[in-house]
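hey team, just a heads up i'm posting the complex here instead of the shared drive bc the drive is being weird again. everything in one block, sequence lines first with there labels, then the predicted structure for the whole assembly after. its four chains so it's a bit long, scroll down
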Amino acid sequence: METKWHFCHPLPVVERMASAVQVEIRQQPFSPWAELEQWGGDAAADAVFLGRVRGQTMDGQTLQALELEHYAGLCEQCIKTSAQTLLSEYEADAALVLHRVGRLLPGEVIVLVAVHADRRGAALNCCAALLEDLKHGAPFWKREWCDGQGTWLASNTPR
Amino acid sequence: METKWHFCHPLPVVERMASAVQVEIRQQPFSPWAELEQWGGDAAADAVFLGRVRGQTMDGQTLQALELEHYAGLCEQCIKTSAQTLLSEYEADAALVLHRVGRLLPGEVIVLVAVHADRRGAALNCCAALLEDLKHGAPFWKREWCDGQGTWLASNTPR
Amino acid sequence: MIDVLQVLLFASLRDRAGWSVRQMPLTARTNTAGELWAELQLGSLLAINIAVNQQLVGPERVLCNGDEVAFLPPFTGG
Amino acid sequence: MIDVLQVLLFASLRDRAGWSVRQMPLTARTNTAGELWAELQLGSLLAINIAVNQQLVGPERVLCNGDEVAFLPPFTGG
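-- predicted structure starts here --
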């Protein structure tokens, strides 16, 4: 089993870390750059990852829409715990995760991951690690719609 | 000598690659998120790095200002060539680099590096590699101002 | 009163079963999350995650009256 | 007319020399970029990059009339 259990167990975290993590699951489209503007910060290093819906299905057909489902509550908690653990591991300062659910069209933003740190290495590595954790360890499910037929994905896209 | 010569030599590049790279050296402060909004794109994966001026000098004193000098012409060419080479190497689609010169205050943005790609790994790795190339291979120089005294940095910050 | 469990299925598991939420009695045959899964007759537990009361657990997790038990197919977010 | 070079110094090198741009004659003692550097008497060439006509070159680069020769201390951008 590839799925990581470890980071969803409750971990002792200090209050500072908890407040440094912002996680939101959104039903509606959002503008990633406006969200980052609002998140603010004046850290020496910010790393950001943004994922958008592809125009094609995993097997190369034209995609009509991508449906995203999640297990509300557990999902947010998994991402928060992962973020707190990784901020501490990489000595980074703050993390923002916004993730869409519902029906998304090609080109729409699915996920935004951003990390503030004092060093470029910490920011970039923590951002990449948080994205991987989120893809493999948080209860989200994608269904591709194509010619009016929906197909649940069995696994994630390769890195 | 740590400096990389190789990527400043002219390389054969196709027109598509050349147009996929945007490099600008700015004398005035810029809003990174507004620049990214304007850069646009609908790639499946965007990776972004943003560097800001620290409030302290390399040896821990309060920084008044950071002065950035560059060798105009060669500098832009070095970054463009590096970006074209790395886009090809990582199979990424487009790169944006904005870099400040002049007198910068703590908290101001020094550098913005962004990469569009079809895969998260390509976007993140290409962004990190382009940032390292830019730090070590493009003719920029930083001078820290502290108590009215300017000191040229002898080397870059650790990753 | 009989002890009950709240069982949740998601995504492809929900489609396979034809339901998403069901109340089930807590019996001698559903002492653990793994035993409850077997009772549902939805195939192999391989690659399925289990959450009890919004916390990921293993199949050996003992169930109690009122537990929310969710079966989760492989995650594909991000 | 005498053959000339346009010599540029940047950042700490400019401060050390006290000038940033200088016209210098192209002579038998300044056939290459390395020889020109020695002529300037600004210390070791170690860690100094050289650009001729906006292209990075090695110290063995032969110089021609009208060349722009820049000496560049270690880069510290980004």
